[in-house]
Amino acid sequence: MLKALINQLADPIISFPIATLAFWWMIKYYRFFGSKKFGMWALIVSIPVVAWFFADPNFYLIIKTPDNVPIGILLILVCFFTWFSLHKAAVNDERIEQGLVPIEALPENREKVWSWPNLVYTELFAIIACTAFLVIWAIIFKAPLEEPANPTWAPNPAKAPWYFLGLQEMLVYFDPWMAGVVLPGLVVAGLIAIPYIDTNPKGNGYFTFMERKWAIISFLYGWLVLWVYLIIVGVFFRGPNWTFYGPFEYWDLHKVVAEYNINLSEFIWIKGLGIGMPKNLILREIFGILLTFAYVGIIPVWVAKATKIGRKFYEDMGSIRYYIFMFLFITMMSLPIKMVLRWLFSLKYIVALPEWELNL
Amino acid sequence: MAGNGIAKKVRETQVWKSIFRHGPPDNARNRAAVIAGNVFLHLHPIKLKKSGVQLGYTWCMGGLTFFIFLALTVTGLLLMFYYRPTAEYAFNDIIALREHVPLGIMREIHRWGAHAMVITVWIHMFRVFMTGSYKPPREFNWGIGVILLVLTLLLSFTGYLLPWDQLAIWAITVGSNMAKATPFMGNGGPGAMLARIGDFVMVSDKNDVRFQLLGGRFVGEPALLRFYILHCVFIPLVVGVLIAVHFWRVRKDGGISAPL
Ligand code: HEM
């Protein structure tokens, strides 16, 4: 019963909004989520829950693949360090509110200490712990080796290495030229651009949330929800034919999911206007094209003019920084937007030009 | 720390003194000497702010990434003694490695280490972001870091093909199919249609970026050789150089970040 419910909830249609909501709460009440008390309770509750997951044969089938072990480790580390950095930020923010300096700026922490032994011994300890960890991991789990390469027989599902599964999951919503080339390219370019866009001088060299709220929200949403969460979906919830399977569901090859997605142009010309599709390609896709231009061209301007926060950003950053930031941000948000449009309207492409391999 | 008995005698031998040119690091002068006089330790400053040594601040994730990179270099070198990058031998060499090296865990350490490095690099970036350490004067070093992150993923990705099993070639097939969709440069990407002169297709599946990457139209033997060289020589060299730049800049930008 409960398992059936969880299987349902795990479907991105439901779990993605849940993840986004959870993220929003975490940010909004970061002092609560970053408290020691919450950390303790989360730990106490999660242990039996994880044990219960492991006890399920279907879940165990997926998690036991040796190549999936790193994802377990990644998840544990991401949860811990997210909590930890919120904790440190919460402590510092409270101090700043009381007019004190952040912990890192206390005189005893500014004091200079010798690298030997202070730093060198910490490193030695970290190296020994890491070596021990790797050796134990290597003894318990054999490196996998499957059948010899056979170019004529593709396994189903054929998955990329786990760290790229977020990108592979994006293929559900975008064509390869977006999911595999343009968006990852913009992720890299966007990351490099961060220090040049974020002109807020505060929060340099100590943990804080309050002093750089928007920078942290934009980054963490991309990292936790659009990157890590999508990897989880790609690894655990996508079976043969990239169909959705709940965590307790058996990967049955014959599960068929009927999906009829239609393009924006079909919506408008056929369903809306009832006059059929025009022959001219540009005319046919004109609504999608205009919409796309409006999305990247008009929204940033409108936000800067009409909203308080937008005006503040624009004034702080200047026009070039502001536009680059908005472009990167709305490109990032195009993923969740496209997901929601797919789920609500079965929308396939906003601009559908298969003739030019140009689908958006 | 000065020691007595045997330890002291050993310290006074000519051999010891020729290796360690300073006394035990229990006073200021020697603590400086031990860091400055050792080529590996001199990556560190002699003294640094206390906030920067604390595990709670750096999480030691950059340091561990570097350590794992070194561990991967060593284990990878050992694996190279057993492995030939051809379609005929690759898979069997891995089997042989398994069978002929009793209790061998080099392949395991190499594989799990590769996963671990991807994870530590991500967490390192996460930490650097959360402490705002990309802000001036460290903007450039953050950029170097992003390139290192991409190269780490590519290292892992190119290594994934080498066992030459089903997992390997299909994961790489899925991944490299993306290159086909590169705008203007991939045969199946937007814009490729436009690049033709009459009947002559300029961006075909025999010359697009995917072909260049794989040395063929599918993941075959030329791809194996390419990935092998990228994985064992080219990318590690570039990563090594960039790590040197990264560390140099950590020092030149004023050491580990701290409140201004
Ligand atoms: C192969 C990958 C990498 C290695 C070996 C590496 C290594 C290190 C080390 C050892 C430090 C010293 C402090 C610490 O341990 O945190 C450091 C600092 C730093 N790293 Fe990396 N790093 C890598 C990737 C990255 C990435 C992906 C980024 C960001 C996108 C980055 C940005 C920085 C910055 C800005 C600093 C200065 C931090 C400060 O002063 O607080 N690095 N790195």
Number of strands of chain A: 3
The ligands bound in this entry are: protoporphyrin IX containing FE
**Helicity of chain A, in percent?**
55-70%
What number of domains of chain A? 2
Question: Could you tell me the strand content of chain A as a percent range?
Answer: under 5%
Distance between the termini of chain A: 40 Å
Question: How many β strands of chain B by DSSP?
Answer: 3
Name the CATH homologous superfamily of the largest domain in chain B: Cytochrome Bc1 Complex, Chain C
Shape of chain A: globular
Share in β-strands of chain B: under 5%
Radius of gyration of chain B: 24 Å
Assign a percent range to the helix content of chain B: 55-70%
The top level CATH class name of the largest domain in chain B: Mainly Alpha
Order of helices and strands of chain A: HHHHHHHEHHHHHHHHHEE
String of helices and strands of chain B: HHHEHHHHHHHEEHH
Please describe the biggest sheet of chain A, giving its number of strands, its sense, and whether it closes into a barrel.
2 strands, antiparallel
Low-confidence stretches of chain A: none
Biggest β-sheet: strands ordered side by side in the sheet of chain B? 2-3
Please give the radius of gyration of chain A in angstroms: 24 Å
Please list the strands of the largest sheet of chain A in the order they lie side by side. Answer: 2-3
The total of helices of chain A stands at 16
Can you describe what's shown?
The complex is a heterodimer of chains A (360) and B (260). Chain A has helices at 2-10, 12-28, 30-33, 36-54, 57-63, 69-97, 107-110, 115-140, 165-170, 176-197, 213-236, 264-272, 281-284, 286-306, 308-317, 319-345; strands at 112-114, 352-353, 358-359. Chain A is mostly helical and 360 residues long. Chain A has two domains: 2-145 and 161-242, no CATH class; 264-359, no CATH class. In chain A, strands 2-3 form a two-stranded antiparallel ribbon. Chain A starts with a helix and ends with a strand. The model of chain A has no long low-confidence stretch (mean pLDDT 92). Chain B is an all-alpha fold and 260 residues long. Chain B has two domains: 1-47, no CATH class; 56-178 and 221-252, Cytochrome Bc1 Complex, Chain C (Up-down Bundle), CATH 1.20.810.10. Chain B has helices at residues 5-12, 14-19, 28-36, 50-53, 55-58, 61-80, 90-100, 106-130, 139-161, 166-180, 209-214, 221-252, and strands at residues 47-49, 196-197, 200-201. Chain B has a two-stranded antiparallel ribbon. In chain B, a hairpin with a 2-residue loop joins β2 and β3. At the A-B interface, α6, α7, β1, α8 and α10 of A face α3, β1, α4, α5 and α6 of B. The structure holds protoporphyrin IX containing FE (HEM). The site of protoporphyrin IX containing FE (HEM) has 28 residues of chain B, from α6, α8, α9 and α12.
